[in-house]
Specification:
By secondary structure, the chain is an all-alpha fold. The chain is globular. It folds into two domains: about 200 residues, no CATH class; about 240 residues, no CATH class. The C terminus is likely disordered. Helices cover about 85% and strands about 0% of the residues.
Length: about 475
Amino acid sequence: MSQYLYNFANRIINSVSVIVFALILGNLLVQEEVGIYAVFVMSSAYGVAILGIQVNVALMQKLNDIQNEKVKEQYYTAGLVTTLFFGILIIAIFNIFSTPMSGLFKLEDIQIIFYSSILAFLIILRSYITHILQSLLENKYIFYSAVLAFIVTIISFFITYFSGYKLEGAIYAIYAGHTVFILTGFIKISKIYKIKLDNKFYHYIKSILSFSTVVYFVSLAAFLDNNIDLLLVNYFLTKEDVAVYNYAIKIAALFLLVGASISNVSFPKVAALYSKNEMEKISVLMEKILKTNFFIVMILSILFLSVSKDIVDFILPPEYNKINDLLYLLVPGIVLFAGFFSIKFLFNAIKMPSLGLIVDWGAFFINLILSLLLIPIFGLIGAAASTITSFIFRPMMLIYLINKKTKISYNIKYLYLILPLYFLFTFFIFLFDNNVTIKVLIAITFICILTFIIKPYNYLNYKFKGNHD
């Protein structure tokens, strides 16, 4: 159980640290600089997603399946060399094509492209270290390393900021945090694996890449869908708009943590049941997972929306007030997606990853087309509407493909009642946006109704019994 708790804690610290650091920047830098920083991070993420075929998933599978320690060291070495190769490749391509890339990301200072290539290199290496530690079940060590990296980032920024560096200080600080995590990870891993080369070295690289190529297209689709709106906001609108939208989407995306964490816990159980062809038990489990996820996500989100205006006004300067209206659009859409996010892993668990590919690429193209049409006309509201439509498409396709391609069935009729109620109560909260007392009372009323409909204690009983099977 401690592994699950630390896995969840790692997701929390990674998400919260990004938002907290961004909030610090929002209060100390001018809005345009915050927008440039967001583009700096975004461009590095695009570099990692498009140019870096990360070997992490394939490597974890190899390290978990193989018992021979010497062979494990060969795969570890092959993964490290491959990761370093793609990291260096990103730096080279960013610098060779720095001029057209600065145009794509609308950056007047071409030096930002170089900075983002360094960040991309650090990100891809940190991701590799993280997955190696996860394969060793060192989630606790990952957590403490991430906390240390976050502390170093904050301290480094304040030192550089008060030394006269503003935007550059934020960039150097994020470098420092990633570097600390990478170094602490290497220290731990070096005690277990040694770098080892032999005449089969290229065979190990080929083995990793052959599997990673498939994963690449799945992860690329998910990345593009989640980030294309911000790219087009940057292209069509101003850096100030980028700063606002970046905050809104990051805050709203926090509600995906619940579904992601439940997925991690449920994946081994579903995979084990599938190997025994126990489809009925999978159906029962999936229904319980869905109910629990929607119950938690809806409660957290409606409580948040009831006080979101006050929170945003407290943590950010007045120029970010537009975030409030965006959250009323983004959060309900993400709640629908987050509710089903806990079963997104199902296709991998039952060995049908291609179905997940259909969902991710379909969502991306919908988001892309709508963003191109709506953002130039409606601005940030158009971006939010495009994202919401993409989020709605995902669960609809998940339901359709599960019913069409699998023997798994479960009852979701309760959603026909609770979803309209959730949207209705969210609208009521929006109407009383300036009265926090009424908004909280509306949220509490919805939670009471939701508890009566979902009856979450039934799931707790089921889970307790399941632990004794």
